[in-house]
Amino acid sequence: MDSLTQLTLGAAVAVATLGRHSPHKTKLVAAGAILGTLPDLDVLLDYGDVVSNMVLHRAQSHAVFYQTLLAPLFAYLAAIFCRQRQYYWRWLLATWLIFISHSAIDAMTVYGTQLALPFNNQPYAVGSIFIIDPLYTLPLLFGVGLFLQRQHPPAGYRANMLGIALSSAYLLWTVAAQWQVSQIIKQALTAQQLNYQQLLVTPAPLNTLLWRIVVITEHGYAEGFYSLLDADNSLTLHHVATDPALKARYQQLKSVQQLAAFSRGFYNLRQQNGQLLLTDLRMGQEGSYAFEFVIDSTSGMPLAQLPMRHNSETALPWLWRRALGQPLPSPYWPSDQ
Question: Is this model's pTM higher than 0.85 or not?
Answer without folding.
Answer: yes
